[in-house]
Amino acid sequence: MKINIKKCTLEDLHMLQEISYETFNETFKHQNSLENMNAYLEKAFNLQQLEKELSNDSSHFYFVYFNHEVAGYLKINTGDAQSEEMGNESLEIERIYIKNKFQKLGLGKYLLNKAVEIALEQNKEKIWLGVWEKNDNAIAFYKKMGFAQTGAHSFYMGDEEQTDFIMTKLLK
Q1: What is the pLDDT of residue 8?
Q2: What single string gives the DSSP state of each residue in 94-113?
Q3: Whether this model's pTM surpasses 0.70
Q4: Counted domains in the chain
Q5: Are the CB atoms for 45 and 17 separated by under 8 Å?
Q6: Euclidean distance between the first and final Cα of the chain, in Å?
Q7: Alpha-carbon distance 31 to 143, whole Å?
Q8: What is the distance between the alpha carbons of residues 29 and 165, in angstroms, rounded to a whole number?
Q9: What pLDDT score does 172 carry?
Q10: Domain containing 22 — which CATH number?
């Protein structure tokens, strides 16, 4: 078993789009309408949007490889790239996406620890994320990793308003 991590560049744009579609679909299609899923996928993961995010100096993407195969990715944000105003002492984990066939292998924990490592290197005081209130597995995982719910915000899946819990872990 070999786990590697690689920072994404613009050259990875198409792979990033492919894995974003695949993992988001696998995770959420059973709980959302096809119309809302398609609307969200087109808005969030079109090439122009992903290129804009990859080009933002305050956002970083990392592929995780399991035995030389891309298994998922991490997206982190700092400063004004964060999806909520949390200040410069915070780092946001916007996405930890792992393909279904690589679930339960410790890759989510590996990526989360990578985000914590980066936050500590940048002297951040806290790390935070938003997680859908109906994503029980993810909520349980984040609690196990030391996160606590500190708020909530709206998330739009197509035209449907949903609630994401904001979960935070203090680093200092």
Answers
A1: 98
A2: EEEEE-GGGTTSSHHHHHHH
A3: yes
A4: 1
A5: yes
A6: 33
A7: 22
A8: 20
A9: 80
A10: 3.40.630.30
Where in the sequence numbering do the catalytic residues fall?
142
For helices 13-28 and 34-45, give the axis angle rounded to 10 degrees. Answer: 160
Task: Name residues whose C-beta falls within 8 Å of residue 50's C-beta, 6 or more positions apart in sequence.
Answer: 13, 16, 17, 20
The type of residue at 164 is D
Q: What is the pLDDT of residue 6?
A: 97
17: containing domain: 3-124
Give the angle 25-107-170 at the CA atoms, nearest 5°: 100
Q: Is 72 within a domain? A: yes
CB 99 within 8 A of CB 19: yes
* Spatial CA neighbour of 95 closest among 71, 122, 129: 129
Query: Is the alpha carbon torsion for 66, 19, 24, 56 positive or negative?
Result: positive
Chain CA centroid to CA 171, Å? 19
Q: Please, what is the average pLDDT of the chain?
A: 96
Residue 53 resides in a domain:
yes
Residues forming beta bridges with residue 72, ordered by sequence position: 64, 98
Beta strands in the chain (DSSP E): 3-7, 59-66, 69-78, 90-98, 126-132, 148-157, 160-170
Residue 75 lies in a domain: yes
